[in-house]
Design a protein that fits this description.
Strand content: 15-25%
Oligomer: single chain
Helix content: 40-55%
Number of helices: 9
Low-confidence stretches: 1-6, 8-16
Number of domains: 2
CATH class of the largest domain: Alpha Beta
CATH topology of the largest domain: Beta-Lactamase
């Protein structure tokens, strides 16, 4: 991608939104727990690790949820279902760390951005949205070292409506070829009428990398 409007706007909050120190601390602590345990911490676990009260932690949750899609909770609870870019429920986009830990990305762009954000070597396993064939990407030292489908592409909505986790991410997917992306869009034009130009993974990765590198730096992972 010479990255399209969707990435520039849809990922804007990861790159630019300013957080208060206590919000950054909670956000970073949640990610570190996920990287270590493969699951999200509870409020109690955060209280014990951060030495903060439940009220302070929940207040940080509230602010993170207000500021976009940093964090999304199950309605009426403190259970986190997604914390951008990680989904705590299964998706098509699996991200395997070198230690074998499996995480789920919220969308195709997030799957490619997570290794940059966390400064980790990963194996991304996903599927073509059209033919459902498995697609694999190996990212090491911030570069794509292997692609099972050299002509892989990504398409996404031009504009997102919050919460993007529910309204945008389900439509940001990989395709094994431009042909399959065109075929899927042609059949789903009524579902998505503001689709961005289709972009190749190789073309788009530099801007994905720049965006997620800033997010990782903000949270202390780089």
């Amino acid at each position: 991608m010479a990255l399209n409007d969707s990435l520039q706007e849809g990922q804007r909050m990861e790159c630019e939104c300013e957080l208060k120190p206590e919000e950054t601390e909670v956000l970073s602590s949640i990610f570190r727990f996920i990287l270590k345990h493969g699951k999200c911490p509870t409020v109690e676990e955060l209280r014990l690790s951060l030495k903060r009260s439940d009220e302070e932690i929940i207040r940080a949750f509230d602010e993170l949820e207000k500021k976009g899609d940093f964090l999304l909770r199950k309605k009426g609870t403190q259970e986190i279902v997604s914390i951008y870019p990680v989904s705590l429920t299964s998706t098509e986009h699996q991200v395997f760390l070198e230690d074998g830990t499996r995480l789920f990305a919220m969308c195709a762009v997030d799957a490619l951005g997570m290794p940059i954000m966390f400064n980790k070597n990963v194996r991304v396993v996903s599927r073509c949205e059209e033919c459902k064939s498995e697609m694999v990407f190996e990212i090491k030292n911030e570069e794509i070292m292997f692609m099972s489908h050299p002509d892989a592409t990504i398409c996404s909505p031009r504009r997102q409506v919050y919460p993007a986790a529910e309204t945008c991410c389900p439509f940001v997917n990989f395709f094994c070829s431009r042909k399959h992306a065109d075929e899927w869009i042609a059949r789903n034009s009524g579902l998505i009428n503001n689709i961005n130009p289709i972009v190749s993974v190789q073309q788009g990765f530099p801007k994905i990398k720049a965006c997620w590198k800033r997010y990782g730096e903000m949270l202390g992972f780089r």
